[in-house]
Design a protein that fits this description.
The termini are far apart. The protein has helices at residues 9-23, 30-37, 51-63, 76-93, 98-101, 109-124, 129-148, 178-205. Helix 4 (76-93) runs antiparallel to helix 8. The chain is an all-alpha fold and 219 residues long.
Length: 219
């Protein structure tokens, strides 16, 4: 007769993450998780004090998937771009947890570690502390905002709806092109953001604008 699998934090987080991905945050409860894991509800409290702690652990597990290795090995512009793209890809794969992450790292270890690496990378590149903080916040707004919902899917696929709006006559087609619209918007925003930061950086450092700078990699 097979022995029951040992209940661990990792198993609880994996089960909760699967529920969040499949059904959303509202699907997570101690009773539901216990049923999914084949255990009694109170046994989960040996590992987590509250449901919110479980959700926080799911959020941190998602953030731990983001690649921050570019800071310290790439020019700050390239590092910022590659990190933002990795962050965006991870959140796009787990959109239901984004509302939790949008509030910041809180006490979550992976979230704090990511913030530390990004902030430290900007400081090491010569950004003043205040501006490095602003850049970190700005990047989080861009990445989490882009993952909170689809712009393209926000328009109904009913051409009659737009008959009174002459500039929206093709809006009903946006959903058919969701990926290109939403990803194109994120890429454009990232391009403009980094280009603007580059101009601010070289102006502050007194570097002539016609001095060649590192090409920014793209995925």
């Amino acid at each position: 007769m097979a022995r029951p699998r040992l209940l661990t934090r990792e198993r609880i987080v994996a089960a909760a993450a699967a529920l969040v991905d499949a059904e959303g945050l509202e699907a997570v409860s101690v009773r539901r998780l216990a049923a999914e894991l084949g255990v009694r509800g109170p046994s989960l409290y040996n590992h987590f004090a509250t449901k919110n702690e479980i959700v926080d652990a799911v959020a941190d597990a998602v953030v731990s998937q983001v690649d921050v290795s570019f800071f310290g090995t790439h020019d700050w512009r390239a590092a910022l771009r590659l990190w933002a793209q990795s962050f965006h890809e991870v959140l796009s794969a787990h959109p239901n947890i984004v509302p939790v992450l949008a509030h910041g790292p809180g006490r979550r270890p992976a979230g704090l570690a990511m913030a530390d690496v990004v902030y430290g990378g900007l400081i090491d590149a010569g950004w003043p502390e205040a501006q490095a903080t602003h850049i970190g916040a700005l990047m989080r707004y861009l990445v989490t905002g882009s993952a909170l919902g689809s712009f393209a899917l926000g328009f109904a696929e009913d051409p009659r709806l737009y008959e009174s709006y002459p500039h929206l006559r093709r809006a009903h087609l946006l959903a058919e092109h969701q990926h290109s619209v939403d990803e194109g918007a994120f890429t454009l925003g990232l391009d403009l953001l980094i280009a603007g930061l580059d101009r601010l950086y070289v102006s502050a450092k007194g570097v002539p604008h016609d001095v060649p700078r590192p090409a920014l990699p793209r995925r």
